[in-house]
């Protein structure tokens, strides 16, 4: 589904991401983790062409991303940033309707098929009863679900999420991640997301990509990636790794800063 080959990304003269290569299969959830400033969000922005790459290439469903127009790209991929904004008088239903724009010519209005997809996206995300609410009146968790509904209305094959749980309390963080897992399972939607919480990444990901200083340190299944040695070398903290009988995902308990 997503093949990233030898991406090099600079900000000015400074190399931020170095020789980044990654292959993600259709239907996988992959989380990118790493310390602040390690290049996680930069990678997502480069994949979605929000920022240019110095070199390298990205293929989505076998097609070279640079050969696609932004409208074509938006039909197969959607990215939601850490914080998204829109005018205060936009309703949830109107916001979700914007997800149909990549499928329309500039002069075309939404038709019955588009409204049917909007209804479907609202139902998938549990936002149907909020459709007439202004986005500005929603809680952080509700607003995040509304933006995900807009993304679904694009009918993408690939969803990129940059820290989707930022600014949310614990319960709403879990609500959003459970929604992502549901959509992945039911729609076979491929998801790549940047997360900070190691336990969230462990629980909700098929694979983990660990980045530090712009380099991939390891890529694999949570049970293979999360070791005390790896976490110490990347984050500089000592941890305990625990496996519970009812879960294959490791639980990470941070003890202290490493000496």
Short recap of the structure:
With 259 residues, this protein is an alpha/beta fold.
Describe the structure.
Keywords: ATP-binding, Cell membrane, Ion transport, Iron, Iron transport, Membrane, Nucleotide-binding, Transport. Residues 2-238 form the ABC transporter domain. It is a peripheral membrane protein. 33% of the residues lie in helices and 28% in strands. It has 259 residues and is an alpha/beta fold. Strands 6-7-8-3-9-10 form a 6-stranded mixed β-sheet, sandwiched between helices. It has a 4-stranded antiparallel β-sheet with strand order 2-1-4-5, covered by helices on one side. The protein has a two-stranded antiparallel sheet with strand order 11-12. The mean pLDDT is 92.
How many E strands?
Answer: 12
Structural class: alpha/beta
- Under CATH, the topology is which? Rossmann fold
**Which CATH class applies here?**
Alpha Beta
At the fourth CATH level, what is the homologous superfamily? P-loop containing nucleotide triphosphate hydrolases
Mean pLDDT: 92
Q: Strand-and-helix sequence, N→C?
A: EEEHEEHEHHHEHEHEEHHEE
What CATH architecture would you give?
A: 3-Layer(aba) Sandwich
